[in-house]
Design goal:
Radius of gyration: 13 Å
Mean pLDDT: 90
Number of strands: 0
Helix content: over 70%
Number of helices: 1
Oligomer: single chain
Structural class: mainly alpha
Order of helices and strands: H
Shape: rod-shaped
Distance between the termini: 43 Å
Largest sheet: none
Length: about 30
């Protein structure tokens, strides 16, 4: 269960990082 929980946390951090990168990219383009 610990491994699964860590995997979910990493996935959430990864999604947050992708969303942040996309937001910054769109902000810079505009």
């Amino acid at each position: 269960r610990l491994a699964i929980d860590l995997g979910q946390e990493r996935a959430e951090k990864g999604n947050w990082l992708i969303k942040t990168t996309v937001f910054i990219a769109l902000f810079l383009i505009n």
